[in-house]
Automatic annotation (TrEMBL):
Stretch list, region Disordered: 251-272
Domain Methyltransferase small: 46-132
CDD domains found in the cross-reference section: AdoMet_MTases
Family annotation (Pfam families): MTS
Name of the featured protein: tRNA (Adenine37-N(6))-methyltransferase TrmN6
Keyword tRNA processing: no
Keywords attached to this entry: Methyltransferase, S-adenosyl-L-methionine, Transferase
MF (Gene Ontology): methyltransferase activity
Length: 272
């Protein structure tokens, strides 16, 4: 794939000194990637085998690999531009020996490996109710063209080792989809955490942690044992980054500006 086909790139920090390229006018990593990556690392900090489903440009793959230095990782991505950028981002951070990148559909890729930790940040816009972008990469990152959270949960269940954890985010308005997907795949819900973009807004997405039902005593829906972690609130009502947002940056060794001014756009919205 040529540079012309990919388009203009920005060069951005991701974790510590590690950096990634992402398209200026395409899919870019965001809060769901960072929050899901941290949740995953905390769920299995001892993981030796990791799989990232639908890895996109490699943002979650990079963050998890940065924190879990002894882990071997498999990253799967079907969209051509995102796969090419993931390939470049792994190479520039000297990860090609430790991370195996597969160009394929997570729903059909056949793997013999089983993972201690599996991650996924699926799209969650309904293709029947959403207009696709003129940009293919953006379309596949936002709209469920290759399935939604149920498909990620089903794929994760097939690839999860006993004692492993599957950490996936999904639309906060539709917890039923995550619960139904888990039940159909033979998984228990271990924990959930809502993520709120701004203090005066509702939760945007929920991060779910699943385990194989055969791991031990029954857990999850109906047992009252789902751990409901405190929500992450990314910004104040005025648009300033919160301590939650700073904690995410510190976790991945990114600088924090404690004196950052609130967002001018957010202030203008509240003034209207």
């Amino acid at each position: 794939m040529t540079d012309e086909e990919i388009g203009e790139l920005s060069d951005d920090a991701i974790a510590g000194a590690w950096r990634l390229w992402q398209r200026v006018r395409g899919h870019r990593y965001s809060l769901d990637d960072v929050a899901t990556a941290r949740e995953a690392v905390e769920a299995r900090p001892d993981a030796q085998r990791v799989i990232d489903l639908g890895c996109g440009i490699g943002s979650v793959t990079l963050m998890v690999a940065y924190k879990l230095r002894d882990a071997r990782v498999i990253a799967i991505e079907a969209q051509a531009i995102s796969h090419e950028l993931a390939r470049r981002n792994l190479a520039r951070n000297a990860l090609t020996e430790r991370v195996r990148l597969i160009h394929g559909d997570l729903r059909t890729v056949a793997l013999e490996e089983r993972a201690d930790l599996i991650t996924g940040t699926p799209p969650y816009f309904d293709p029947k109710k959403s207009s696709p972008s003129t940009d293919s990469q953006r379309t596949y990152a936002r709209i469920e063209m290759r399935g939604g959270i149920e498909d990620y949960v089903a794929a994760g269940a097939r690839l999860l080792a006993p004692g492993g954890r599957l950490v996936v985010c999904g639309d906060a308005r539709r917890p039923d989809r995550a619960m139904a997907g888990a039940a159909a795949a033979g998984l228990d819900v271990i924990a959930k955490r809502d993520v709120v973009p701004r203090a005066d807004k509702d939760a945007l997405f929920t991060i779910w942690t699943f385990a194989l039902r055969s791991d031990g005593e029954p857990r999850g829906e109906g047992t009252g044992t789902i751990a409901e972690h405190p929500p992450i609130v990314a910004r104040t009502a005025d648009g300033a980054r919160t301590e939650d947002a700073h904690a995410l940056r510190r976790f991945f060794d990114q600088p924090v500006n404690e004196d950052e001014a609130p967002s001018p756009r957010a202030r203008a919205r509240r003034a209207r």
